[in-house]
Amino acid sequence: MPYPYLLLASFIFNFSTVISFPYFITLLQNHFDIHSGVMLGFLFGLPHVVYLISIFTLQKHQQKPSHQTWMFIISLIILALSFYWQSLTASFSILITMRILMGVAITLGFISLNRMISTLKLQKQEGKVFGWLDSISKWAGVCAGLIAGISYQSLGITAPFAIGGFVLLITSLFLSIYLCKRQHMITRSYHA
């Protein structure tokens, strides 16, 4: 994937993973009437626990560089679906399942994004490239916080989840079209 697309992918991924976090505890209190600090903290941190447990195992699996973008797209779709289900479900077991699925999606997303970044031909510009990537992730967090606050105030508690899921699905569609067109062009040039 070209460098500008990787920057955009990094922005969207970080934006979407941050947008729901400020209001997840409020969602739990409103939809599930959970007020125990231990339970709220456990559910909030569950995707991160899944990430920490699974990152080392999943990183060992090698894939072709050409498959990394598809793995990233799949992680975006899984993450989007987990957002929608978390915001709509009234079932505690489905909520737990979606938090676990969210952790798996975050893990796959970070692995594939980092692998795509590692394939960049940096030509002694590593500091500049990683500086931009770090800056992009910070800007994504700022934008996610602002949009989460505005959407929550205007549209309600489920709005940040819906926006995060929508952005992920649009991005996965865009990347899928890009990959299909690129593959079509490669196939045509190969047969020409």
Automatic annotation (TrEMBL):
InterPro entries: MFS, MFS_dom, MFS_trans_sf. Pfam families: MFS_1. Gene3D superfamilies: MFS general substrate transporter like domains. The keyword DNA damage does not apply. It comes from the Bacteria. The keyword Chloroplast does not apply. Residues 2-192 form the Major facilitator superfamily (MFS) profile domain. Keywords: Membrane, Transmembrane, Transmembrane helix. The chain crosses the membrane at residues 5-25, 37-58, 70-86, 92-117, 129-151, 157-180. This is Major facilitator superfamily (MFS) profile domain-containing protein. It comes from Piscirickettsia litoralis.
